């Protein structure tokens, strides 16, 4: 019993570390100025429209996604998934901290922008791998995709693509209508959509070996 409790604590610690790594990945993407990852595109655009930080708008999006999961699943909604709420609060707070910590970082050329973007993609991919390896609770974005798959006959991969595209389209429309320019969605967004998953899959193997030792 004690071993299970210790393992659970270790798993949540790994999740928190993964959230921190992802938060810095998001911050690097913002600093790159080439567009953020699909899941962060809408919070970023919202932070430009309303007087809230990108971390706060990230929390707002996650809370909305949690509510949508409840509406979709109703009696099938598992109460343990409410753990997505504190995870969202931690992730949003860490994102604001990461943006603050990188305040002095800037790109002086297009190449430097891509270097910062690459670092962001790498960190988000590593963070996603740590989240998956921790295997305790998903972020609200993944939770929403899983909820859709439970209600509708859609494969996870297709639902994930549809979810990402929806966020990017909403972010693009809001940006064009209210900012009169396209912000938060650029070539870096496309690169993140393709490479984050690939990075996470590559990191999963060594991360699993680490987990076998930590959670044995």
UniProtKB/TrEMBL annotation:
<keyword id="KW-0812">Transmembrane</keyword>
<keyword id="KW-1133">Transmembrane helix</keyword>
<feature type="transmembrane region" description="Helical">
    <location>
        <begin position="50"/>
        <end position="73"/>
    </location>
</feature>
<feature type="transmembrane region" description="Helical">
    <location>
        <begin position="114"/>
        <end position="140"/>
    </location>
</feature>
<dbReference type="Pfam" id="PF19700">
    <property type="entry name" value="DUF6198"/>
</dbReference>
<keyword id="KW-0472">Membrane</keyword>
<protein>
    <submittedName>
        <fullName>YitT family protein</fullName>
    </submittedName>
</protein>
<feature type="transmembrane region" description="Helical">
    <location>
        <begin position="161"/>
        <end position="182"/>
    </location>
</feature>
<dbReference type="InterPro" id="IPR038750">
    <property type="entry name" value="YczE/YyaS-like"/>
</dbReference>
<feature type="transmembrane region" description="Helical">
    <location>
        <begin position="12"/>
        <end position="30"/>
    </location>
</feature>
<feature type="transmembrane region" description="Helical">
    <location>
        <begin position="85"/>
        <end position="102"/>
    </location>
</feature>
């Amino acid at each position: 019993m004690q071993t299970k409790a210790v393992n659970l604590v270790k798993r949540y610690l790994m999740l928190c570390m993964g959230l921190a790594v992802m938060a810095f990945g998001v911050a690097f993407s913002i600093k790159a100025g080439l567009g953020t990852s699909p899941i962060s595109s809408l919070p970023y655009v919202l932070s430009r429209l309303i007087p809230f930080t990108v971390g706060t708008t990230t929390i707002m999006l996650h809370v909305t996604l949690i509510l949508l999961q409840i509406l979709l699943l109703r009696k099938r909604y598992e109460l343990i998934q409410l753990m997505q709420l504190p995870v969202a609060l931690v992730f949003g707070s860490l994102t604001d901290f990461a943006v603050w910590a990188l305040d002095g970082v800037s790109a002086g050329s297009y190449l430097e922008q891509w270097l910062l973007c690459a670092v962001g993609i790498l960190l988000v991919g590593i963070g996603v791998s740590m989240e998956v390896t921790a295997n305790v609770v998903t972020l609200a974005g993944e939770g929403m995709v899983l909820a859709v798959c439970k209600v509708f006959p859609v494969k996870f991969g297709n639902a994930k693509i549809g979810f990402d595209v929806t966020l990017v389209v909403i972010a693009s429309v809001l940006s064009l209508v209210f900012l009169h320019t396209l912000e938060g969605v650029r070539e870096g967004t496309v690169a993140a959509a393709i490479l984050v998953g690939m990075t996470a899959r590559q990191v999963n193997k060594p991360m699993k070996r680490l987990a076998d030792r930590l959670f044995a």
